[in-house]
Amino acid sequence: MKLFTSVHDVSDINALAAEALQLKQNPFAHQHLGKSKTLGLVFLNPSLRTRMSTQKAALNLGMNVMVLNIDKEGWALELQDGAIMNGGTVEHVREAAAVMGQYVDIIGVRSFPGLKDREEDYSEAIFNKFVQYCGVPVVSLESATRHPLQSLADLVTIQELKKTARPKVVLAWAPHIKALPQAVPNSFAEWMCKADIDFTIAHPAGYELNTDFTDGATITNDLNEALSGADFIYVKNWSAYEPYGKVLPGNEDWMLNNEKLKLSNNAKVMHCLPVRRNLELSDEILDGPNSVVVHEAGNRVWAAQAVLKQMLETL
Amino acid sequence: MKLFTSVHDVSDINALAAEALQLKQNPFAHQHLGKSKTLGLVFLNPSLRTRMSTQKAALNLGMNVMVLNIDKEGWALELQDGAIMNGGTVEHVREAAAVMGQYVDIIGVRSFPGLKDREEDYSEAIFNKFVQYCGVPVVSLESATRHPLQSLADLVTIQELKKTARPKVVLAWAPHIKALPQAVPNSFAEWMCKADIDFTIAHPAGYELNTDFTDGATITNDLNEALSGADFIYVKNWSAYEPYGKVLPGNEDWMLNNEKLKLSNNAKVMHCLPVRRNLELSDEILDGPNSVVVHEAGNRVWAAQAVLKQMLETL
Amino acid sequence: MKLFTSVHDVSDINALAAEALQLKQNPFAHQHLGKSKTLGLVFLNPSLRTRMSTQKAALNLGMNVMVLNIDKEGWALELQDGAIMNGGTVEHVREAAAVMGQYVDIIGVRSFPGLKDREEDYSEAIFNKFVQYCGVPVVSLESATRHPLQSLADLVTIQELKKTARPKVVLAWAPHIKALPQAVPNSFAEWMCKADIDFTIAHPAGYELNTDFTDGATITNDLNEALSGADFIYVKNWSAYEPYGKVLPGNEDWMLNNEKLKLSNNAKVMHCLPVRRNLELSDEILDGPNSVVVHEAGNRVWAAQAVLKQMLETL
Q1: Topology, domain A3-146+300-313
Q2: Which residues pair with B287 in a beta bridge?
Q3: For chain A, which residues make up each domain, given as ranges?
Q4: Cβ–Cβ contacts within 10 Å for residue C36, how many?
Q5: In a 10 Å sphere around its CB, with 0-12 CB exposed, 13-18 middle and 19+ buried, how is residue B219 labelled?
Q6: Residue B50 contacts C where some CB pair is shorter than 8 Å
Q7: What chain C residue is nearest to B31 in terms of C-alpha separation?
Q8: Which residues, other chains included, contact C211 with Cβ-Cβ below 8 Å and sequence gap of 6+?
Q9: Which residue of B has its CA nearest to A60?
Q10: Cβ–Cβ contacts within 10 Å for residue A161, how many?
Q11: Domain Aspartate/ornithine carbamoyltransferase Asp/Orn-binding spans what residues (chains A, B, C) (predicted)?
Q12: Residue B224 pLDDT > 90, yes or no?
C-alpha cells in the first residue's frame, strides 16, 4: 500500500480489518519490518487519539516516530501554485512536503477543512499536494473530507463485536454547538457502503451528505425508524453540506439517550470522540453497558498498525 | 506499585531511595523490563525537569515514551460530572483518560492548581479522575497539592550527601513575586516527616501549610533559629493556604544569602527549580560551593526510574 | 568533537564532508555508538528541517532524542548575569542549561537573534551560556550569527554535485519582505572561504556582511558579473548589518530567475529553505532542472550525522 486516504485505496476492506484484529492478538510480531524506518506525523490541527494511536502502532512495528506540529513548531504553509509569497505564508507546501519526504519513510498528515469554501475543502488541496510532492507513502490522519483510519477502526470494532452475520448499522446525526466537518460521517458512510452490513443514515432535513459517499445507504430523516432493529448506532454531528458548513437551528432532540436506545436491538453505541456529553450523547449512554466508545478508540491502534504494516511491506 | 501520587503510595521510602541510588550506579541494567512498554506523559502545564528526567528514566528502562501537551496539542478537558458540554470544553476527562489508557502502559500526569478555590484544588479532582478512568498505573508529574517525584529526588539527594546519620533539614520559605502552589512544600514536608531526619519548617506568619502534611515537623517563624545547625536548607516559596493562594506583603528579607547560611552547619542548599535568582536565593549561594540544586535536579532521573521500575514489575 | 558552533570548531572541513557522504551510503552502520545515549534538542524558535534532520541523524546512530520547545513547553529564560529576577523570566539560563546537561549526552540549541541590538546578537550570549553551563557537547541548531549544520550540508552538496575540481560558487542576496538574520550567509561565507572553491558574494550596496566571515571572498554589487561562469548559486536574503537588522528599499530585481540563470555555467541553484517563491526565487527556477534545494535539504541528515558521530566518539 502506497496511499491510505480513502476506502478506494484498499482492495479488500474485510481482509484489512481481519489483519488489524490479528495484530491486536500479537502486537509485536512484526518489529523487524519497522527497524530503522521512520514515520513522520505532521499535524496542522490538534489531535489526541490519532496522534497517540498512530504513534503506538508505529512503535509496535519497531519504527521510530517524529511528530511535527507544523502550525505551532513550524510556520504557515502556502498552498496556492504561482503565489508571490510576500504575505504571511513562510514556505510553500511543495518544498515542505518534498523536504519531509527526505527525512521519513512514511508520512501521516492531518489537515482540517476551513468550512468556508466547499469547493476548496472538497478539492483536498493541501492533502493532495503532500501526496504529490513528498515522494513517500502517505497516511491520512484526517483530511478535509475523510478520516479513513477512524473508519477502518470502526469497521474493525463492528467485525469484532457483531452478533449476527449482517448487522444493521445506523449513522445517527447528533446536535453540537459548533460547525463540525463532514469528514468522519463521509468516511464512515463510504466504508459502511462497502461492508457486509445493512447501513442506514439518519439525519434531520438539511444535513444531507455529499452523495459521492452514500451510494447504497438507506437515508431517512426519521431517527426512531432508523433505530428500530439497529445493532450498532454510530452517533456523530456534522454541519450542513448545503448551505456549506452551517449549523441549522433546532434538532436538539436528536441527542441519543436511553429512551431512544430502547428502540434498537440492544445496540452497541459508537462515537469517534471527542464527544460532547449531554449534547451529542447522554451520560447514561456513555456510562452505560451499551457504549463501546473507549473500546472503539482502542481499536485505532490496530487499524493504524494494519495500514502501516502494509506500507512497510512495500517499501 | 500501581500508583505514585503521594508518600502514602510507598511502603518503604528508604528502600525506594536506595533503589534510586542503585539505578544511578547502573542505569541500563533493567532495559528488558520496559521492552515494548510505553509511557504516556500528559502535560496540562509547562515542564522542563519533570518532562526531561521522566523521559530519560523511561528510556533508561527501555520504554517508549509518548508526550502529549494536551493544553496545546489537544483541547480543553471537562472535569465536571453531569455537565452539559455546550461551552468551551471539548472532551470530558472520563473519555480522555480512558482512551489514553488504551494506548500506554503507564501514564504520568501534570496538573497545577488554579489557586482560586482551595477546596477544589485540594480535592485533586482532575488527578483523581485520571486515576479513576485511565485503567493503567499513574505517576504524578506534580498535581495541585503534591510533587512526589520531586520529593523522592530530594530524599535521594539527602541520603546521598548527608554526613551524619540523622541530619537536620530545614524547609525555608523564600520570597517570590507570583502566587505559587503549595505542592512542593506540602510534598517535601510529608516525605521528610517520614524520613530519618530532624525536620524543621520555617516561614513568616501567615504561610502555615495544611497540617495534614506537617505532622511531626518543628514549625517556626524564626528563620535564624531554624537555620542554626542545619545540614540541609530546602529553599522554596509558596503562597498562603489561608487566605488561599495569596502573597502577603513584606518578608523580602527571607531570601537566603551567605550571611544567613553562616548560621547553619555549612548546610547544603537545595531548591526544586526553577529558582528566581536574587529573589529566592542570592547569586552567591547558587554559584557557591554549598548549592546542590543542579545535582538535586539530576537525581530526578533516578527517582523517576525507581518508581517506573516498580510499576513495570507489577504490570 | 566537543563543540560544533562554527567552522572554527572543525579541524578539516573536507574530511568532515567526506564522512557525511560515507554515512549517506551506509546510514545505520554506527548504531552501537548511540546506544543508550540521548540527544536533547532545545528550540527557542521554530524549526522544520533542522528539527527533523537532526532527529533522523540521531536515530540513524541509535540515539534516543528528546525535543524541548522551551518557548512553548517551558518558560522564558533569564540571560543577564546578576539580574534580580522579579520580572517575566522564570529561570536563569545557568540553571536551565546545567540541568538539561544532567539529562542528555549531547545538546542541540536553536536561538535566533533579536535583530535590535547588534552587539548583543553578535556576542551570542545565550548560546555561549549554554556551552558554558550545560557540561556536555553542544551542537548549534542555528544561533544568532551562524548556522553551521546548514553550511556543512551545503559543502556536502557542493562536493557531491560539482563537475570541476574547483567550482565557482556565488552567494547571491535575494529580496524578502521581512528582516532576516545574517546567520546563514555569515556561516555559508566562512565555510566557503575555507573550501576548495572560487567564492563570490553578490549583494546590493548596503548589505555588506561582517568582514569577520568573508575573508578571502570576492565581493561585488553586480549580480550579473557574479553569476557569469558560476557553477553553484546560493540564493539567500539577509538584512543589513549596518544599519543593523534593516531592510533597505528597492532591489526587487535581485530575485533569481531563468534569465539571470542563463548568465551562469548552467549552475545548480541552492537555498537553505524556507524560500519565498517568486520573491527570492522564481517558480521556474524552483520547479526547473537546476534547483537542488530539496536534495540539499536531504543532505542536512548526513551533515548532522557526521557531527553527532564525531561527538559520540569522544564521549
Answers
A1: Rossmann fold (3.40.50)
A2: none
A3: 3-146+300-313, 150-297
A4: 14
A5: middle
A6: no
A7: C36
A8: none
A9: B36
A10: 16
A11: 184-310
A12: yes
**Distance in angstroms (rounded) separating the CA atoms of residues B299 and C98:** 13
Q: Shortest CA distance to B241 belongs to which of B189, B198, B169, B278?
A: B189
CA nearest A44: which of A104, A96, A86, A118? A96
List per-residue pLDDT tens for chain A, 315 residues long. Answer: 999 999 999 999 999 999 999 999 999 999 999 999 999 999 999 999 999 999 999 999 999 999 999 878 888 899 999 999 999 999 999 999 999 999 999 999 999 999 999 999 999 988 999 999 999 999 999 999 999 999 999 999 999 999 999 999 999 999 999 999 999 999 999 999 999 999 999 999 999 999 999 999 999 999 999 999 999 999 999 999 999 999 999 999 999 999 999 999 999 999 999 999 999 999 999 999 999 999 999 999 999 999 999 999 999
Backbone φ and ψ for A313, nearest 5 degrees, come out as -70, -15
Cα separation, C225 vs C228, in Å, equals 5
Q: Does A157 touch chain B (CB under 8 A)?
A: no
* CATH number of the domain located at residue range(s) C3-146+299-313 in this protein: 3.40.50.1370
- Kind of pairing, strands A198-202 and A168-173? parallel
CB contact under 8 A, B72 and C72: yes
Matching CATH topology for A3-146+300-313 and A150-297?
yes
Q: Which of A4, A1, A9, A295 is nearest to A156 (CA)?
A: A295
Q: Note the pLDDT of residue A71.
A: 78
Instruction: Report the amino acid identity of residue C216.
Output: G
Beta carbons of C173 and C254 less than 8 angstroms apart: yes
Q: What is the CATH class of A150-297?
A: alpha beta
Residues of A in Cβ contact (< 8 Å) with B86: 177, 276, 279
Kindly state the average pLDDT of the residues B119-123.
97
